[in-house]
Specification:
The chain has one domain. 29% of the residues lie in helices and 35% in strands. It is built from 2 helices and 5 strands. Strands 1-2-3-5-4 form a 5-stranded mixed barrel. A hairpin with a 2-residue loop joins strand 2 and strand 3. The longest helix is centred in the N-terminal third of the chain and has 19 residues. It is elongated, with a radius of gyration of 17 Å.
């Protein structure tokens, strides 16, 4: 009986934490260009990589809003691409839990 209660508590904890996470779909841009790269393209990718190389931080543009991110390394390789990000969203910032390439058009 005790094992069952512990398992139930663990499952509730996991699903409870998942409820706090939010998933947004957007395009990885840089802080300097921001919403200029609201759609994914090869030109956007080249520009974002160039600005990133110059010291600009990576951001995510979704729904016309620019979100700052906590972990730049998780966005590397997705510059100028459409992504799905799960994490904690507060105002204009995202604490990233996971990043994956998004399929289809925005």
């Amino acid at each position: 009986m005790r094992k069952k209660l512990l398992m139930l508590a663990a499952v509730m904890l996991v699903f409870g934490c998942m409820a706090w996470a939010k998933t947004i779909t957007g395009v990885v841009s840089d802080a300097m260009c921001g919403a200029k790269h609201a759609t994914a393209s090869d030109d956007a990718a080249a520009c974002v990589k160039k600005c990133e190389g110059g010291g600009s931080k990576l951001v995510v543009v979704a729904g016309g809003k620019v979100y700052n991110t906590d972990d730049q390394d998780k966005l590397k390789g997705f510059e100028g691409q459409q992504v799905k990000i799960s994490g904690d969203v507060k105002e204009d910032s995202i604490t990233i839990a996971s990043v994956a390439a998004a399929k289809g058009k925005m």
